[in-house]
Design goal:
Length: about 400
């Protein structure tokens, strides 16, 4: 039945099949085919010998009646290889189209080209590859949709985890604000009582009154600044900008200062002056190092004596990168969990005292700034082991 459809091709099929190597050579040397294969890191010789030559054998088998349409032995392996290398359906179409064009080119070289022969060659190619292209397109489309679905779900999960981490941080910050406000509130209360007592005794002088009013204004200004610092942390940056790492460190330490003093944690800082040397999200970055400081403080309280608690912070430059290291002497992280501490929901704290999201959020923010973070156990002082976090960020 097929032979009646392709008389021009049947009449020259033997001569054309003898030129199969030339067809393969034209096909595999076509610019667009080479470009697609190179782009997806597919070996050209592998494509030529394992797939192109065998696909043409199948083509001529169909023409000669020794093979059935849709029964190409190598096609399944060929399509699987393309999928593994993320070849799109459009790129597969380009590859198939240039196989036909290469065969037509050889007919011109042989001096047998004709409109009828071109029609017959195209007819057999369409029979062979139309179904393959449709199947591949549908499969790739489904895979793309599944990938898009998974990506969307992961984004939702990440957003939820970030929200949970932010809420946990907000709880800690509110606790810090409460601590920082107790003393100034007590001071304001004492000033008011003292002023009221002077007034009742008829000894309230204008200078005394004005000084007390000014003192209250200053104290309220400090309390207001605490709220401003709090807002700084929880209003994310929408745009990347140049910023100074040292400023972010200072802001993070200010928010945890009360807890550090309360737990007798000494902080030492060593910085090279770099000014606005990093490009990224300063508020989010301040959150990341606040997480590290907070974890170090908790580990020190849990594992160390009150008079030996220390956090050391250093910044330096190396290979056009800013390198921030944060060390403590809390004894280090157990080797069987050190590789897990950046995983979401992993925590060593008691139930209800940690979400396991702080360091995960830290890694995500650092990654978004094209940076890296890793942790190791190291000696801070002689016979004093602890964890060392290293954050590297590209310089502007």
């Amino acid at each position: 039945m097929l032979k009646k459809k392709i008389p021009a091709l049947i009449s020259v099929s033997k001569e054309l099949e003898d030129k199969k190597d030339e067809i393969v050579r034209y096909w595999t040397n076509t610019d667009i085919v080479v470009e697609v294969l190179t782009k997806h890191d597919i070996d050209l010789d592998l494509f030529k010998n394992e797939y192109a030559a065998k696909i043409l054998n199948y083509y001529f088998g169909v023409v000669n009646g020794t093979k059935e349409i849709g029964d190409c032995p190598v096609m399944a392996a060929f399509l699987q290889m393309l999928k593994e290398h993320d070849i799109s359906a459009d790129e597969l179409f380009d590859i198939c189209t240039h196989a036909r064009k290469s065969m037509v080119t050889v007919t011109f070289d042989m001096g047998i080209a004709s409109r009828d022969l071109f029609r017959d060659i195209s007819y057999v190619f369409d029979l062979n590859f139309k179904g393959v292209l449709e199947q591949y397109s549908n499969t790739v489309y489904r895979l793309e949709k599944e990938v898009e679905l998974h990506i969307g779900e992961n984004k939702k999960k990440d957003a939820l985890m970030f929200q949970q981490a932010r809420l946990a941080q907000m709880g800690e910050m509110i606790s810090n604000i409460a601590h920082q406000w107790r003393q100034p509130i007590s001071m304001i209360s004492a000033i008011i009582q003292n002023t009221h007592m002077k007034y009742n005794l008829g000894k309230l002088e204008a200078e005394f009154f004005n000084k007390n009013v000014e003192d209250i204004k200053n104290i309220l200004g400090q309390m207001s600044q605490t709220i401003t610092d709090f807002q700084y942390f929880f209003e994310p940056n929408k745009e990347k900008e140049k910023f100074c790492i040292e400023n972010s460190i200072t802001k993070a330490l200010e928010l945890i200062e009360h807890d550090l003093k309360k737990e007798n944690v000494e902080v030492s800082r060593f910085h090279y002056e770099m000014k606005d040397s990093v490009y990224g999200y300063p508020k989010e970055f301040a959150q990341t190092i606040l997480n590290v400081f907070s974890n170090a403080k908790d580990a020190l309280v849990q594992n160390n004596e009150a008079d030996k608690r220390h956090i050391q912070i250093k910044t330096a430059t190396k290979d056009n990168k800013v390198v921030l290291t944060i060390r403590d002497n809390a004894g280090g992280i157990s080797e069987d969990i050190i590789e897990k501490i950046f995983n979401p929901y992993f925590t060593t704290k008691e139930e209800g005292k940690g979400t396991g999201l702080g360091l995960y959020m830290t890694t995500q923010i650092i990654n978004n700034m094209n940076g890296t973070i890793h942790v190791e156990n190291i000696e801070l002082f002689k016979n004093s082991m602890g964890a060392k976090f290293t954050i590297e960020l590209p310089m502007c």
